[in-house]
Amino acid sequence: MGALMLPLAGMAASPQRIAMEVWKAPSCGCCKDWIAVMKKAGFSVQVFETGNNGVRAQMGLSPELGSCHTARVAGYVVEGHVPAREIRRLLREKPDAIGLTVPGMKVGSPGMDGPVYKGRKDPYQVLLVRRDGSTSVYQKYA
Q1: What is the H or E stretch that residue 51 is in?
Q2: Whose CA is closest to 16, among 81, 79, 91?
């Protein structure tokens, strides 16, 4: 009987993967790299190779806060190369917000940190986007 319990115990101990949907252009390599980082961080990622402008607008994020891919996780928008650590923090804290963004494509951010960049790391900020469209700095990276 004890042998039968072991597989169940192992299943209970494994963490639940968090579902994430990502919209990106089919040819975008840095988006693929960011998705790989999210999968490694424990997210279950469904990818839509259709671009992200429509989804970004539907979720209420203004174009000036945009980047090359848009994700949705637990009802929040995650725009651009946001680190998994900040996404987990967002899900833990559950602020009344649209979500997080790293506008543009910051070298050194997840997915923009491959060998082609030769170790370069530009400073960037993860912004929290409130429901009224205003932003505040959620986390700084140097």
Answers
A1: none
A2: 91
Q: Identify residue 7 by its one-letter amino acid code.
A: P
The per-residue pLDDT for range 112-121, each reduced to its tens digit, is 999 999 999 9
Q: How far apart are CA 92 and CA 62, in angstroms?
A: 25
Q: Is residue 129 a contact partner of residue 138, using CB atoms and an 8 Å limit?
A: no
Query: Low-confidence residues of the chain, pLDDT below 50?
Result: 1-14
Residues contacting residue 65 through CB under 8 Å, at least 6 positions apart: 79, 101, 103, 127, 129, 135
Per DSSP, 55 falls in state: H
- From CA 91, how far away is CA 97, in angstroms rounded? 11
Q: Where are the alpha helices (DSSP H) in 1-142?
A: 2-13, 29-40, 53-58, 84-93
Give the pLDDT confidence score for residue 13 in this predicted structure.
41
DSSP classification of residue 76: E
> Hey, how many other C-beta atoms are within 10 angstroms of the C-beta on 62?
14
Amino acid at 127: L
| pLDDT value for 51 | 81
